[in-house]
Write a structure and sequence with these properties.
Pfam families: SET. Helix content is 36%, strand content 14%. It is an alpha+beta fold.
């Protein structure tokens, strides 16, 4: 699943996709086989390899950074039940480095944040299996659901050296079959120690890899795994990333115009989703599995490994209209990168809201409020209206940007708000203090 879990702030979506492993999950998934593979399974002469994975118990931390270990996080002791610990716990196959990083995170393991009332429900989504739906009206920036994963497992084989050990005469497909076979063996070590109340929901999740040689656990992980920027090893290679599989969050279907943003919080060890625009009660809650700024044909290719033969979202149904709009957003990405990111403090010399409002409409039309480009335009509008001394619009865009920021960068929100307030206090337009305007006491000159 597309890994836009956490972001590199201030970079356009396009640049992040190029520079980082932004769309790694879907690309990685394409590297393994999918669909129907004839004669799936390892060749008869294949000899399975020796794994170095260690089973870890308790709070032990003195592992080598590269040591692959199976461990339970947070460690709630033997006999933990959901009744006693409703936030749950995660069975992990991670490196010694990552275990140390997680356990040493300030506040770990904090309680999972919960919305004041349940804002989601799981129900049938016609043509897509199960899906997640809004149980009430949800405002932009609001937390919809936070969930502790059932399992975290590496995106590559761990503790087994496949490269160089697979007989030379094996075809590429046979190599892939060996890779999947060894990954399944690794994963068996994790599920083998899962409590039934965690294992049963995991094994009930959708699996679109039933005929390609993925084992049952790998198939479920490939279908449902999210990637989180924080859950990775030191190196920044495809081998350093992990798949995070949750229970209810795994029921979110794909849309090329998603209405929530995903966020990983290490302290509470939870995956969280926030509304990026208003969501009406009964509306399906969706996330993305592919590069949102890619043209429809490329998105379709990225969705194929998920068994989605044709995405029927409005943008995919009408690429003649949507592709040029998304191409325009890629131009905004370049502008944003040239400007130094979405939170640059340069106020416009020739303030003009028209092109910005046009850009905003383009992004909203495509339902891409989740992108940093949207936050960038909101911020530019805030600054432009401030320069024009239009207090009403300035405040309106500040509020929109605030809600957007709460959804996309929830960890930064308090710090960010304090910074903006300080900035506003410092700014004066003639006799008019922006701080007064913020309190609604002043009038634009
Ligand atoms: C992570 S699961 C989502 C939940 C799933 N629908 C279920 O029943 O548990 C991913 C699978 O859901 C289905 N799916 C997700 N988004 C879809 C879409 N936009 N169109 C059709 N099928 C979709 C595909 O079968 C895909 O392999």
């Amino acid at each position: 699943m597309a890994p836009k879990q956490t972001r590199t702030e201030g970079q356009s979506s396009a640049k992040k996709a190029e520079n980082t492993q932004q769309w790694l999950t879907s690309r990685e998934a394409q590297k393994l086989s999918y669909g129907v593979v004839k004669n799936a399974g390892v060749p008869q002469d294949y000899e399975q390899m020796q794994t170095q994975v260690q089973l870890s118990s308790g709070n032990k931390l003195d592992y080598d950074d590269s040591m692959p270990i199976v461990t339970t996080l947070p460690n709630l002791g033997l006999g933990a039940t959901l009744e006693k610990f409703p936030d749950g716990w995660t069975e992990c196959l991670i490196s010694g480095y990552l275990k140390k990083k997680i356990v040493n995170t300030p506040g770990f393991p904090a309680a999972i944040p919960r919305p004041p009332i349940a804002r989601h429900r799981i129900a049938e989504s016609p043509g897509k299996g199960l899906g997640m739906f809004a149980a009430c009206n949800i405002k932009p920036g609001e937390l919809v659901l936070a969930e502790r994963p059932l399992i975290i497992a590496p995106r590559a084989i761990f503790g087994v050296r496949v490269a160089g050990r697979v007989p030379r005469h094996y075809t590429d497909e046979q190599y892939r079959q060996v890779t999947m076979f060894e990954r399944e063996r690794n994963l068996n070590l994790v599920t083998g120690r899962m409590a039934p109340e965690r294992l049963e929901p995991l094994m009930s999740l959708a699996n679109c890899h039933l005929q390609d040689g993925s084992g049952p656990i790998l198939g479920i992980i490939r279908t449902n795994g999210f990637q989180a920027e924080e859950i990775r090893d030191k190196a920044n290679t495809s081998e350093s990333y992990y798949s995070v599989v949750c229970n209810e969050l795994s029921r979110m279907n794909h849309s090329c115009s998603p209405n929530v943003a995903r966020h990983w919080d290490t302290a509470s060890f939870s995956m969280q989703i926030f509304a990026v625009r208003a969501i009406k009660e009964g509306e399906e809650i969706t996330t993305e599995y592919c590069d949102l700024l890619a043209p429809a044909a490329q998105r379709q290719a990225e969705l194929a490994p998920y068994g989605i033969s044709q995405c029927v979202c409005p943008s995919c149904s009408n690429p003649a209209v949507s592709d040029p709009l998304r191409a325009r957003i890629r131009v905004i990405s370049r502008k944003m990168d040239d400007a130094g990111g979405w939170m640059n403090l340069d106020f416009p010399e020739k303030p003009d809201v028209k092109p910005l409002l046009g850009d905003l409409i383009t992004i909203a039309k495509e339902g891409l409020e989740e992108l940093d480009e949207y936050g960038y335009i909101l911020w530019e509008l805030f600054k432009t209206y401030a320069t024009l001394q239009d207090s009403k619009n300035m405040l309106a865009y500040r509020q929109k940007h605030k809600a957007w920021k709460a959804a996309i960068y929830p960890d930064d929100a308090p710090e960010y708000e304090a910074g903006i307030d300080d900035l506003l206090k410092l700014m004066k337009f003639g006799n008019l203090s922006l701080n007064k305007m913020m309190k609604g006491k002043g009038k634009a000159a």
